[in-house]
């Protein structure tokens, strides 16, 4: 199904940008996990529109309602259904897009696939679809924290040509959330703010990069061939709206290194029988598609927002040439709101692979051989 993701932890999102509601069904979460709705709401608040002058000014509280799967503060083990009702709907603002294709948007490709599309804010191609991902990701985040102490943290590391200088080993959530850009480098954050505001004033948009680190990931997560951990992370990240690139560890920069420079030397375990560590982490925490216990480090590139106020050449559904200056409420830069999306998808992938590893480990644990 095109709206579903995961194996043992299965996510199915639903809803359109200007429909009645958006939401998610999360199936496969273990029972008895302590979970408060406020923990889900916290991540949704970080994703919601209107949170600063740098993002779309659509006014949505994005209050989540848990319909099933949660009882007396614990998960029941059954499907967790969550819904967020759309409050600030204005479908009429998009009537001028009914028969016009926005350049580099999903308008034409949805028509090509289905022969029909919801032009109201992009329908399913709108970033409001990601509400379900973030809600499900918050549950996965809690599961990872309880069972393994995993911490997943993302931040904006680049907007357009402005690049941040951030120490991934020490950066914390408070640093990231200190400003509306979600860039923990104050000087870079100020420059990013100036660049985004200038692009908005010019009827334009900007892209950039989100960096994400997952700490305390246990070794052994990931499958040897097609469901490698880094492959699943890449699929998850590239499924996000406006995502155009993914790299893990050294990424493309590793191509200019030699093997001697790039290899991560092993260090002796700190305690007898303990896990060996590595002197460097060019692998980004994944070797052979399986986590090695080092921090998981990856980056996701996001393109400039496709819908802009500047006039652009395009065509109508019947192929007639026209000019389009889009109206409506759009992010001049998706990066600040992309951070919780990247974190959510990372949590969902890690939690799914943790459950899969539990299935692999069950016999040794039962027989006492491990």
Structure notes:
The protein is of the alpha+beta class and 370 residues long. The chain folds into 2 domains: 4-249 and 284-367, Chorismate synthase, AroC fold (4-Layer Sandwich); 250-282, no CATH class. 28% of the residues lie in helices and 21% in strands. It has 8 helices and 18 strands. The strands form 6 sheets. Strands 1-2-3-7-4 form a 5-stranded antiparallel sheet, covered by helices on one side. The protein has a 5-stranded antiparallel sheet with strand order 9-8-10-16-11. α3 packs across α8. The longest helix has 33 residues, at 335-367. The chain is globular.
Describe the protein's topology.
Layout (H helix, E strand, L loop, with lengths): L3 E2 L4 E6 L5 E7 L9 H11 L17 E4 L1 E2 L2 E2 L4 E6 L21 H8 L15 H19 L2 E9 L2 E2 L9 H4 L9 H16 L6 E8 L13 H10 L4 E6 L10 H4 L3 E2 L9 E2 L7 E2 L2 E2 L4 E7 L9 E4 L5 E4 L10 H33 L3
Antiparallel strand pairs: 1-2, 2-3, 3-7, 4-7, 5-6, 8-9, 8-10, 10-16, 11-16, 12-13, 14-15, 17-18
Helix pairs in contact: 1-3, 1-8, 3-8, 6-8
């Amino acid at each position: 199904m095109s709206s579903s993701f995961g194996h043992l932890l299965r996510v199915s999102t639903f809803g359109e940008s200007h429909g009645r509601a958006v939401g998610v069904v999360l199936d496969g979460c273990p029972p008895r996990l302590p979970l408060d709705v406020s923990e889900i709401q916290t991540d949704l608040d970080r994703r919601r529109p209107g949170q600063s002058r740098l993002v779309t000014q659509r006014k949505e509280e994005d209050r989540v309602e848990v319909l099933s799967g949660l009882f007396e503060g614990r998960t029941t083990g059954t499907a967790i259904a969550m819904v967020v009702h759309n409050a600030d709907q204005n479908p009429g603002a998009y009537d001028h897009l009914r028969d016009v294709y926005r350049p580099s948007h999903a308008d034409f490709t949805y028509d090509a696939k289905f022969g029909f599309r919801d032009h109201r804010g992009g329908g399913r191609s709108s970033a409001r679809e990601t509400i379900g991902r973030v809600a499900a990701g918050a549950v996965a985040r809690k599961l990872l924290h309880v069972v393994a102490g995993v911490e997943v943290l993302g931040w904006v590391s680049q907007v357009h040509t402005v690049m941040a200088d951030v120490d991934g080993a020490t950066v914390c959530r408070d640093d990231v959330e200190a400003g509306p850009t979600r860039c923990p480098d104050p000087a870079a954050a100020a420059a990013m703010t100036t660049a985004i505001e200038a692009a908005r004033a010019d009827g334009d948009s900007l892209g950039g990069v989100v960096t994400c680190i997952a700490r305390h990931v246990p070794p052994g997560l990931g499958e040897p061939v097609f469901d490698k951990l880094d492959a699943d992370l890449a699929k998850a990240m590239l499924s996000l709206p406006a995502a155009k690139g993914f790299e893990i560890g050294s990424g493309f920069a590793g191509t200019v290194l030699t093997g001697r420079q790039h290899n991560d030397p092993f260090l002796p375990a700190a305690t007898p029988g303990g896990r060996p560590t590595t002197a460097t982490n060019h692998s980004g925490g994944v070797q052979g598609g399986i986590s090695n216990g080092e921090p998981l480090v990856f980056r996701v590139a996001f393109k400039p927002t496709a819908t802009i106020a500047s006039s652009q050449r395009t065509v109508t559904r019947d192929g007639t040439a026209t000019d389009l200056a889009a109206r409506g409420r759009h992010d001049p830069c998706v990066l600040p709101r992309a951070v919780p999306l990247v974190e959510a998808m990372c949590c969902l992938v890690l939690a799914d692979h943790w459950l899969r590893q539990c299935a692999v480990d069950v016999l040794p644990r039962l027989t006492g051989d491990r």
